[in-house]
Amino acid sequence: MSKVFVNLGMTLDGCIAGPNRGPKNPLGDRGIAIHEWLFEQRAFRASLKLGEGGETGEDNRIVEGTIRRIGANILGKRMFEEGEVSWPEEAPFRCPVFVLTHESRPPWERPGGTTFHFVNDGLDSALGRARAAAGEKDVRISGGANVVMQYLNAGLVEELEIAIAPMVMGDGLRLFDGVDARKFELRLIGAIPSPSVTHLRYAVSRS
Amino acid sequence: MSKVFVNLGMTLDGCIAGPNRGPKNPLGDRGIAIHEWLFEQRAFRASLKLGEGGETGEDNRIVEGTIRRIGANILGKRMFEEGEVSWPEEAPFRCPVFVLTHESRPPWERPGGTTFHFVNDGLDSALGRARAAAGEKDVRISGGANVVMQYLNAGLVEELEIAIAPMVMGDGLRLFDGVDARKFELRLIGAIPSPSVTHLRYAVSRS
User: Angle at Cα B56 formed by Cα B51 and Cα B59, nearest 5°?
Assistant: First the structure.
């Protein structure tokens, strides 16, 4: 059965981006440091066409597993717009991506297997369409924080995978801001430390 | 060489207590859930005289190790005052405790080996006295969050041990609020998952 999951990098103090975010600074100050480990991984480099090489250890194995399980993505509008200017011509998803928006816009097919579908009738609709598109594979709620929060609060997330970077942001974009924590419970189902990051995996259930 | 360390329980979103804290609710709403695992451990139960029994697995081994390494504690005034009313007659520290305060007050010796010393001339002074009292053992910056923040910002913390409880608070007392994250760096030196909590250990160095 297909699962709905979140997979994000985060600081020890719960930030997925730094302060002073803006169109020219989408990850905020020092935000790139949260994801530095990821850019070293062979599987991630291949998906973004960043060139040959990269690490092939445990971190890479985890990234490969994540890429392999995704049958469809759900993205917020802002994350789509930020990505639109920085992703290569071959957008890195290589599967259907459902963008939550208020506009009406026809699907946008990119070379390499990514098609963006624009959904303007809510969370449930986007998830239903993503599930149908994913088939046996899983649906990733890719972000941003606000979209993850909405799906958590709606009780629709089944797994939460967090890669904790060894850093504190102090001030930044907090993943769980606005989450109604009484609505769901976490149960640790996996923890894999690597020198660069700690991979935590939780099953999420409604309280 | 004696080390200065922090050891705290925290939620996945960086909270060490819940919302609505007050004199009658020192851990805030749902705050006790962060530490539930700890109250099950044999070593912790013994230190607080909570009675016989308790778990004796990996979590307990870690708690024993922490208790054993502490030669002196540093506490904030508020944490001291909150604890004063809830600790048993034999306060659980069983070693010298240095309380940061603005008052002048003579030492207060408790049965069981705990003596509270009141320090009104700042962080450095408290740490100097705690180091001298600890001898070969380590100095624990016990909290609260504001005191941990002050020692982190002063570059005086050498190790950070965080037990991440499988829960999100959404809103609460954040450990790293007000921390100047550009002043120090973390390096993961240990990660031990247990079903109830994930023990992360970082070396802290000045940036």
Answer: 110
A191 phi/psi in degrees, rounded to 5: -145, 120
A120 pLDDT tier (thresholds 50, 70, 90): very high
Distance in angstroms (rounded) separating the CA atoms of residues A3 and A141:
11
Q: Best interface-test mutation with A: which of B10, B16, B168 has the largest number of A CBs within 10 A?
A: B168
pLDDT band at A1 (very low <50, low <70, confident <90, very high): confident
Nearest CA in chain A to B190: A193
Dihedrals φ, ψ of A47, to 5°? -70, -30
**What confidence tens digit (pLDDT) does each residue in A180-195 have?**
998 999 999 999 988 7
Task: Confirm if A164 and A175 have CB atoms less than 8 A apart.
Answer: no
Range scoring the smallest mean pLDDT among A93-102, B62-71, B79-88, B90-99:
B79-88
Per-residue pLDDT tens for A48-64? Answer: 888 889 999 999 999 99
**DSSP structure string for A49-71:** T--S--B-SHHHHHHHHHHHHEE
pLDDT at A90 over 90: no
**Three-state DSSP class for residue A171:** coil
- Site of tokens 């700042």: B122
Q: Check CB contact of A207 with chain B, cutoff 8 Å.
A: no
Rounded CA-CA distance B34/A14 in Å is: 16
Instruction: Provide the b/e sequence for B121-142 (b: ≥16 CB within 10 Å).
Output: eebeebbebbbebbeebbbbbb
Q: What is the largest CA-CA distance in chain A?
A: 45
The C-alpha atoms of residue A119 and residue A98 are separated, in whole angstroms, by 6
B157 contacts B180 by C-beta, under 8 angstroms: no
Among the partner-chain residues B177, B188, B191, the one whose CB lies closest to the CB of A191 is B191
Residues of A in contact with B196 (CB under 8 A): 188
Tell me the ipTM for this assembly. Answer: 0.93
Residue A103's region, left for phi above 0, alpha for psi from -120 to 50, else beta, is beta
pTM score, whole prediction: 0.94
Minimal Cβ distance to A191: which of B178, B184, B198? B198
Answer yes or no: are the C-beta atoms of B70 and B4 closer than 8 Å: no
Whether A118 and A107 have beta carbons less than 8 Å apart is answered as yes
